[in-house]
Amino acid sequence: MPEAAPLLQLERVHRRFAVAGGRQLHAVDDLSFSIAPGESLGLVGESGCGKSTLVRLIARLLDTSDGRIVFDGEDLAALPARRFATAAQRREIQMVFQDPTDSLNPRFTAREAIREPLTLLAKMPRAAADARVDEVAGQVGLPAALLSRFPHQLSGGQKARVGIARALAVKPRLLILDEPTAALDVSVQAVVLQLLERLREELGLALLFVSHDLNVVRLLTDRVAVMYLGKLVEIGPSEQVFRAPRHPYTQSLVSAIPGQGPRIRLAGEVGSPIDPPPQLCRFHGRCPRGEDRCAREAPALRPVGAALVACHFADPTT
Fold first, then answer.
1. Residue 163: pLDDT band by 50, 70, 90 thresholds?
2. How far, in Å, CA of 27 to CA of 312, rounded?
3. Phi, psi of 45 (to 5 degrees)
4. Contact (CB, 8 A) for 33 and 225
5. How far is it, in rounded angstroms, from Cα 198 to Cα 192?
6. Residue 58 and residue 207: Cα distance in Å, rounded?
7. Contact yes or no for 268/275 (Cβ under 8 A)
8. This prediction's pTM
9. pLDDT digits (tens, 9 = 90+) for 204-262
10. Cα gap 85→66, rounded to integer Å
């Protein structure tokens, strides 16, 4: 049978920011990948690699410099971000933010926070919106008695459930999760992650899961994409990438997981994202394998097994 068309397709997406001296900071540089309906894709990489900028581009909170962001066959990048808030597709793409406290209006009760997107995006009348709030609160395990409380009256886990319920209220098809458990205690993290996995299976959601916790990404995602200095360096099935990473940067990341064997520590300094030489591999200078070719010819993503890897030496035989 033919494969289902991607729900989300990024095609050569760039985002550059102007800096002093007429130079350009390349935050996201020529990224292409897709997410299928119902698929969970993990996005990993160290701080400053461009993950947050990429998430803002996909959520249409930020305009692209170049490239296409195709959602269900329509190029969302053609619509300015300032106008996307009122576009019909806004309700199709929702986001769960990193800090559940900062992402909630302190003057809104839990019910009001969950109801707001229903009135703004779905244009629901008050009675129908309140019925939907009750429904989605039940889906995320938020007791009805807590819906009248303000954020400061809720625990971290309860606020996380409010944030998830608010995102699910308008029945999105793609849910972006930006470090959704980073601000929570470890015991609460496990509960929230189990909730997200259950909701994904029940609702058929596609997920873009951004996290520094590689164990979580390994357990909850179908595929994983690895970013370094604005570039995609490896993307493939989570099991393969974590079991046998082929890019040297991915190998270093995976080695930091307890029980994964000897730790691979990188030497050198992270390169600058400001006007990087186009012919230079972004990982050159830190790569344990780096050779002269890496300074002359930037590697393109190419198939290695079931993954795509941007490295001249990714094949097991090289």
1. very high
2. 23
3. 150, 155
4. yes
5. 10
6. 12
7. no
8. 0.92
9. 999 999 998 898 898 889 999 999 999 999 999 999 999 999 999 999 999 998 888 78
10. 20
3-state helix, strand, coil in the chain (%, to 5): 35, 25, 40
- Asked if 4 contacts 171 with a C-beta cutoff of 8 angstroms, the reply is no
In sequence order, which residues have a C-beta less than 8 Å from that of residue 235 and are 6 or more positions away?
Answer: 33, 223, 224, 225, 226, 241, 301, 307, 308
Q: Is 255 exposed, middle or buried (0-12, 13-18, 19+ CB in 10 A)?
A: middle
Dist CA 236 CA 242 (whole Å): 10
CB burial string 271-289: b at 16+ within 10 A, e below: bebeebeeeebbbbbbbee
Residue 45 in tokens: 């990489």
Distance CA 56, CA 64 (A): 10
N-terminal to C-terminal alpha carbon distance within the chain: 35
Q: Report the relative pairing of strands 8-19 and 93-96 from DSSP bridges.
A: unpaired
